Amino acid sequence: MSRRLAALLTVALLAGCGVPVDDGPRPVQAPPGPFPNPATGSPSVAAGQVDETLCFVRDDGLDTVVRQVQALPAVDVHLQRLLAGPDGAERDRGLVTALPGTLTVTGARLTGRLAEVTVQPVGEEIGRSDEILAYGQIVCTLTGRGDVDRVSFRRGDQPLEVPRADGSLSREPLTAADYRPLLRER
């Protein structure tokens, strides 16, 4: 009798646990990723499903494009893709770049969530509109990544004052908000 009672109690407890029973399987929607990979601690992303944001120039403002890539590249590789300029379809849409002839990027590294970019301005004049657009392209491209919050610029081992959208100079790390007046509305 005690076995029978134990079985009845087990059935009663399981029936009252609040888990609904479906007639058949139901689809489950996975939450948005990427999710950390327990083995490496880094996000795991399905191939070809990563957005790479690049910021180019249209007219007198900044405009972003999103390209699909296999995996988010390192910061320096991402900058190299920006320096390569818009592709043919993007040029057909009126996108150009202010980077060539304005400054030369000589290196980039990620320290925490700060991207440190080493540049060599082509001219000594700071604050021209093409320089503002060039620095804005870099800042808006890198802060479009999920792992970068701010961007600082250096010339050699010294912090570099760079122009913001309003023409003021800053040695402090910059964000896309510093160039918001130049960003085209979507």
From TrEMBL:
Superkingdom of origin organism: Bacteria
Biased composition annotated in UniProt, kind: Pro residues: 28-37
Region named Disordered: 24-44
Pfam families reported in the protein's UniProt record: Germane (PF10646)
Stretches of the chain forming a coiled coil according to its record: none
Domain GerMN, residue spans: 75-164
Protein name listed in UniProt: Sporulation and spore germination
Organism for this UniProt entry: Micromonospora siamensis
Lineage: Bacteria, Bacillati, Actinomycetota, Actinomycetes, Micromonosporales
